[in-house]
Design brief:
CATH topology of the largest domain: D-Maltodextrin-Binding Protein, domain 2
CATH superfamily of the largest domain: Periplasmic binding protein-like II
Strand content: 5-15%
CATH class of the largest domain: Alpha Beta
Largest sheet: 6 strands, mixed
Number of strands: 13
Shape: globular
Low-confidence stretches: 2-43
CATH architecture of the largest domain: 3-Layer(aba) Sandwich
């Protein structure tokens, strides 16, 4: 899920849609990795870490503190723009230049690393360190696991997608509370249309906001199982009833006038979707918690005056999904390169378990308005918004990683194409599923 430029510091970074060329290059790199002998790893004790500039404000101070305390185990850290990072890591991951600490987003990329033997299984190393593992929110730690084994450890803030509301707009339309169910939302759409305002703001020009609707609806209808079947490459998994019903409901919402007129031309990358809600031209907005800073920058008094309210995505009547499930960006992660020597691995793990998510790291993140994916931080968070979001994270039985990250690179690229066609009503729900079924196993 791509994030607006103004909100990058509190998100997974400037994750953008992958082009066909990028996917092709990634496929070649992973294919080469899978076919390689693997190598025995460097005998050097030097430790390297690559990350993105988006997470530099959290990571750099932590590594500097580590280096000061461990002059014989210094970590050399390097930071790149997100796209540059992806290009560099794609080439380096299976070479002698692979960084010891491999920054990644979990999901499909992590699975490809594991399949190719490029990162280490950390399960046994962490098993004896309950003081560290117990502090990580379980649903977020799970995104760093493949087949039940831990290959990646959370390293940044967590950002679920929530329903933002302009209370003034809703009250003027006769709406007194957040929609508890999808049927409630459809009723609110009619009231807002009758009041002469757009019911829901949507940045369709950017396309990535589209996925928030399908991933939440599929979960509310069928729970985590339908999407897990897709990730498990089950034949025709995209034709699951929950997927078909979700895409049908999306098009019904569009036909009911649920989104602002011309939503396909509204940019989320410039915060135009936020502006519609903040300025009173729309009642609702479905966005990640990263949007909070953008909302505050558009109108600092919007939050202070009590106009903003947030709520979970509505339940679907008769659905199997738990209404407390959330979707979004659990975190970014640290993995350890399979080429790392025993000494490098030991030092890297010591850094991650002792310097990441210690009090200093957590406080730095909170000071930047972010939500650390650790338990027991609610009392330290500033403001009702952060505390409410943290409670949603803690209570969530399941945290669905944004689908574009969870899917393989090839499937993700096709997903963007088909989702755009679906929202522009250029294809039917069945056609959407049929096209996506062709990406199973790719």
């Amino acid at each position: 899920m791509k994030i607006p430029a103004s909100s990058r510091p509190i998100t997974r970074g400037r994750l953008i849609r992958r082009t066909a060329a990028t996917v092709a290059a990634a496929a070649v790199a992973i294919s080469l990795a899978a076919c390689s002998a693997g190598g025995s790893g460097s005998s050097s004790s030097a430790i390297t870490a690559w990350s993105t500039t988006a997470d530099k404000p959290n990571i750099q101070p932590s590594i500097a503190t580590w280096n000061k305390a461990h002059p014989d185990q210094k970590i050399t850290d390097s930071y790149f723009g997100t796209n540059d990072f992806k290009d560099k890591i794609r080439t380096a991951i299976n070479s002698p230049q692979a960084p010891t600490l491999v920054y990644n987003w979990g999901g499909g990329t992590l699975k490809s690393y594991v399949k190719a033997g490029l990162v280490k299984d950390l399960s046994s190393d962490l098993k004896s360190d309950a003081s560290f593992t117990d502090k990580i929110v379980p649903s977020i730690a799970d995104t760093g696991k493949v087949n039940g084994k831990t290959y990646a450890i959370p390293a940044s803030s967590t950002a679920p997608v929530v329903l933002y509301m302009n209370k003034d707009v809703l009250q003027k339309a006769g709406i007194s509370e957040a929609p508890a169910t999808w049927d409630d939302l459809l009723k609110d759409v009619k009231k807002l249309r009758a009041a002469g305002v757009a019911p829901i703001s949507l940045g369709g020009q950017s396309k990535w906001p589209y996925l928030m609707y399908i991933e939440y609806l599929v979960d509310r209808i069928g729970g985590p199982a339908p999407f897990q079947a897709i990730l498990d490459n089950k034949p025709n998994a995209w034709s699951d009833h929950a997927v078909i019903q979700a895409t049908t409901m999306i098009q019904q919402l569009i036909k009911a006038g649920g989104f602002a007129d011309g939503f396909a031309s509204v940019s989320a990358d410039t915060n135009a979707d936020l502006a519609l809600m903040v300025t009173g031209r729309a009642g609702f907005l479905l966005q990640g918690t990263w949007a909070y800073s953008g909302i505050s920058s558009i109108d600092p008094n919007f939050v202070k005056s009590g106009k903003l309210e947030v709520a979970p995505f509505p339940a679907v009547s008769g659905g199997k999904g738990d209404p407390e499930d959330i979707a979004g960006n659990p975190s970014v992660y640290w993995s350890v390169s399979s080429k790392a020597s025993a000494a490098q691995t030991k030092a890297a793990l010591q850094y991650v378990t002792k310097s990441v998510w210690n009090d200093s790291y957590v406080n730095t993140m909170i000071g930047q308005g972010q939500i650390p994916p650790v338990t027991g931080v609610s009392s330290k968070l500033k403001g009702d918004f952060a505390k409410q979001a943290e409670q949603m994270i803690t209570d969530a039985p399941h945290f669905q990683q944004s689908w574009d990250l969870a899917l393989s690179p090839a499937a993700s690229t096709e997903f963007w194409t088909q989702l755009d066609l679906l929202f522009n009503q250029s294809e039917t729900p069945k056609e959407f599923s049929d096209h996506m079924n062709t990406t199973i196993g790719k």
